[in-house]
From TrEMBL:
Keywords: Hydrolase, Protease, Serine protease, Signal. Belongs to the peptidase S8 family. The lineage of its organism: Eukaryota, Viridiplantae, Streptophyta, Embryophyta, Tracheophyta. This is Subtilisin-like protease SBT4.3. The active site is at 122 (charge relay system), 182 (charge relay system), 507 (charge relay system). Residues 1-27 form the signal peptide. CDD domains: PA_subtilisin_like (cd02120), Peptidases_S8_3 (cd04852). It comes from the Eukaryota. It comes from Sesamum angolense. Pfam families: Peptidase_S8 (PF00082). One of its GO terms (molecular function) is serine-type endopeptidase activity. InterPro entries: Peptidase_S8/S53_dom, Peptidase_S8/S53_dom_sf, Peptidase_S8_subtilisin-rel, Peptidases_S8_3, SBT.
Amino acid sequence: MAAFCPRRFSFLLLAVFVIFSALQVLAADEDRQVYIVYMGNLVDGDQSPSSYHFSMLQEVVDRSYLTAEEQEKLARHEEVVSVFPSTTYHPQTTRSWDFMGLAENVHRNPTVESDIIIGVIDTGIWPESESFNDKGSSPPPKKWKGACEGGKNFTCNNKLIGARYYNSYSPTDDSARDKMGHGTHTASTAAGNYVKDASFYGIAKGTARGGVPSARIAAYKVCYPSVGCREADILAAFDDAIADGVDIITISIGEAMPTQFTNDSIAIGAFHASQNGILVVQSAGNKGGQKTTIASVVPWIFTVAASTTDRGIITKAELGNGSILNGKGVNSFSLNGTSYPLAYGEDISHECGKQAAQNCESGCLETSLVKGKIVLCNTYKGIMEAYRVGAVGSVALSDYITDVSFILPIAASCLHEQDFHVVHSYFGSTKFPKVVILTSESGRNLDAPLVASFSSRGPNTILPDILKPDVTAPGIEILAAFSPLASPSDNDDDDRSVNYTILSGTSMACPHVAESSRLYKIISSPLVTVCNQISSYDNR
Ligand SMILES: *[C@@H]1O[C@H](CO)[C@@H](O)[C@H](O)[C@H]1NC(C)=O
Ligand SMILES: *[C@@H]1O[C@H](CO)[C@@H](O)[C@H](O)[C@H]1NC(C)=O
Ligand SMILES: *[C@@H]1O[C@H](CO)[C@@H](O)[C@H](O)[C@H]1NC(C)=O
Ligand SMILES: *[C@@H]1O[C@H](CO)[C@@H](O)[C@H](O)[C@H]1NC(C)=O
Ligand SMILES: *[C@@H]1O[C@H](CO)[C@@H](O)[C@H](O)[C@H]1NC(C)=O
C-alpha cells in the first residue's frame, strides 16, 4: 500500500473546485488509484473549499493512506453524494453540412454566431491547423473568462480562444497539443473556419468548414495515447469549461456501459454545466448492432447517434477479365492503373493451413511470396497481414463493418460477400488472375440517411422511460482537420502525415449536433433528424 500523497492531493483539490464541489482522494492502492468524492454544489461559507475538504478528510482519515473502511466512512458523510474510483473513458472514434441542409450560402447571423463558444473536451487540438485560422474573427466575446494555457509553443487566436490540458496521468505530455487527431477533428467539425480544397490525398475534396464557422473554440485535453481519458481529468475539464464561460460542451468520449449517474464524471460534469445554462452533447458510443449498447443515457445530456450522408467513398477493384467491383475502403495509393497478379491462401503461406492462410491470419503470409502481388483475403483483418508482409495491395471480404470506408495502410478494396464471390470464382477460372485497385472516389448514397451499423442503440438501461439516443447526425466518412503527428490509418507503421483526414464514429456525429442545436434557435430550420425511434430499432 502506497502512502497518501498530500501534495498531489491538494493540487487535485484546487483543480476541481472552482464551480462544484468534488474532491479527489488518493487511495491506498499500489497503483495510486484516485477516488472522486462528489459533494454536489459548492456551498458558500467562511472556509475556502480546499481547507474545508481537507478538514473533512482529516476527520475520516487518521493515517497517511485511505482504507476501504475510510472510503465508506467518507461516503457516509452527510455532505457527500458519492465516492467512486476514477476510471478510464475512451474517445469514440465535408459533405455532411450540405446534406443536413446547411449549405454554404445559408442565411447566417454572424454577430450572434460568433458569440458562441464551444468547449471541446477531447484529445487536445492542433492550433496551427488551417481550420482554426481566425480570419474574419473579432476578439473573444466579453463573457469569455478562460485562458490560453496550452503549454509551451502553443498559441491561441480569435478562433481558438482557449486551451487547457489535464495531465495528472501523463505528466510528460505538458501541452494541449493533439497527438491523436481525434480532438482536432471534432473541434474543426464543430466550428472550423472555411478551408478551400481540403481533402485526404484528393479524396472527399471540397471546402472544409465547421457547423458554425464563426463560433469560437476552447479545447480541453483529457485523453492521452495509451492512457485514455481519466475521469478525474474529465471532471476538472468540465469544471474549468463552466467557469470559462462556454455555451456548449461537446464530448465525444464515453464508457462501454452506463453507470449510476452519481458515479459517472460525465453525468456529474454535465449536470453542473446544465445548471449553468450550458448544453452538453455526447456521442452515443460505437457498440452498435445489439440492443441496449448505449453508453450515454443521462437525461440532461443530448446524445447523438451516427448516420450516413449521401456521399459514400468507394474503392474499385478491376479484374483481369474486365469486371469492375465497388468496394469499401479509403485508398490514397495509386497503382497507376497497372494490374498485379492476384495471390490466395496456400500459395503464399508456409506456416498456416489452407483456411488460416486464406483468411490472411496474422503471421501466415510469407514476405518472399507476396512480393509484387495483390492478396485475396477472406477477412477484413487480413488486410493488416497483407500490409505487414509488404504486398502491393489486398482484395478482402468485408466481414467487419460493411457501411463504412476506413483509411487503410495499403491499396485495398473491401467487398460485399456477393462481389467477393465473383473475385473468388474469377481466381479459380484463369491461370494468371490479375487485378488492379483504383484510388478511392466519391459515390452517391441514395438510401441515406441510415443509422450506422456501429452506432450504439437503446433502449436506455438505467432510465427506460427516456429514449436514447436523442438524435442522429452524420458520422460516416467525415473529412475534417487532423493532427499531423497522428497516423491516418491508426497504425504506427503508417507514417503518412496529413492535415485533413476521414474518420467515422458517433464521435464525428456529436460535434455536428453541438452546433445545430444552437443554430436551431438562430435560423430555425430543421437541422437534425430526430430519431428517438432508434431506441426501438433493434427491439423487435
Ligand atoms: C457507486 O459508488 C458507490 C460508492 O460510493 C459504490 O458502493 C457503488 O457500488 C457504485 N455503483 C456502481 C454502479 O458502480
Ligand atoms: C512548435 O510546434 C510546431 C508544431 O509541432 C513545430 O513545427 C515547431 O518547431 C515548434 N516550435 C518550437 C520553438 O518548439
Ligand atoms: C506510380 O507513378 C508514380 C509517379 O510516376 C510513382 O511515384 C509511383 O511509385 C508509381 N506507383 C506504383 C505502384 O508503381
Ligand atoms: C469475370 O469473371 C467472373 C467470374 O468468373 C464472372 O462472374 C464475370 O462475369 C466475368 N466478367 C466478365 C466481364 O466477363
Ligand atoms: C499541412 O499544413 C502545413 C501548414 O500548417 C503545411 O506546411 C503542410 O505542407 C501541410 N501538409 C500537407 C500534407 O498538406
